[in-house]
Amino acid sequence: MDAREAAVLECIYKALRSLNEERPADEQIDIGPSTCLFGESSALDSLSLVSVVVDLETLVSDEFGQFVSLTDDRAMSRVPVPFTDVGALKSYLMELLGEAVPA
Amino acid sequence: MTPNYEGKVALVTGARRGVGQLIAKHFLAHGAQVVGFSRHEDDGQAHPHYHRVVVDVGDAESVMRGFEWVRKQLAHVDIVINNAAVLTSQYSMIMAASSAMAMVQTNLLGTFLVSREAAKLMKRSKWGRIINIGSMAASLDPVGDSVYAATKAAVSTLAQVMAKEFAPFNVTCNTLGITAIETDMLSQLPRAKIDAVIAALPLPRFATADDILNVVDFFAAERSGYITAQTVFLGGVH
After folding, report:
1. Bridge partners for B172 per DSSP
2. Which of A43, B111, B203, B209 has a CB 3.0–4.6 Å from the CB of B235, allowing a cystine?
């Protein structure tokens, strides 16, 4: 994993840690590369996922100085959506950062 | 009670003229930093705490760029006034699709996009007030204003749903349904039509600036944290 990829992963983890800070001790999400974010086996309800996605847009913008949108038509129409798990989200962000313009 | 907006950032769309300009000046006069979203490079506002950002509210990319500027320059936004609107008054059977689409794009989609991006910032600070400028047209169903009235009814519904979605972040969403006030937009309508509408109101007069600002202050107040998903019409319209 190169430095850029590691930094993207850390942004995702930060967003999930931020979510954990707002959750009770018995509802903490296990954070890792295969953490499921969307679907039946996800520990996140829909509002929690929205929180993570919104926080992540800001974190990535701050980290890379590039503006990315995780809620545009392209992301939402992709099958499967790029939020299925941490790995898929990381891959999608890497793809976006490869073409994003500076913020 | 005199409002105090010191330390607050208020964002007003369509701040170049009319009701938007009125509200922007009000917030400036009471200590807020004001961001004016406008499609025009020169919106005529000059104040050390006024920040003009060229944004087309009907364009998602433009709105996101505008809020990126707000986040980087001012860090937060506390109060949003969704005021930008366009009006074409015409019988439905001869209304051009492009005119109808322009109203949907600015009045409804613009309100949605600005509220969406504002909520992302407000979520971080766990405080926010989103105030949509609606219209008596949403309730009075005036002939010639089918699409305009529909978009204004829609922003009330939008606020009601968003109120539920944003409540966990202490963000309220309300709508102020204004009656006619002397603005540039009003000059696009036949005077006889306006006078007839005004005469039929329970309080048959034009709205004043203070009528509007009174409700804006109410919705924006710290004490109004338990007021959300509401539409308040002026002049006795319901």
Report:
1. B129
2. B203
